[in-house]
Amino acid sequence: MRRKAANKRDCEERFGTAVACDYELYSIKAFFNHRYVCELCKERGVELGDLIACELCSFVSADLSPHYKEEHNCSNSRCKEMGYETMTEKAKLRMGQVVTKSIMANPAERLRRSRLLGNLNKREDFRERASKTAMKTSARQDVQDKRAEVLARWRKENPEDFYNKCIKQMHKYKSKPEKWMYMYIKERFPTYDFKSNRQIKSVLFDMNLTSRKQIDIYAKRMKVIIEVDGPHHFREIHGQLEVVQKKDLMLEKYVATKDILLIRVHKYAIDYTATLASKVREREL
Question: What are the residue ranges spanned by the domains of the chain?
Answer without folding.
Answer: 8-93, 171-278
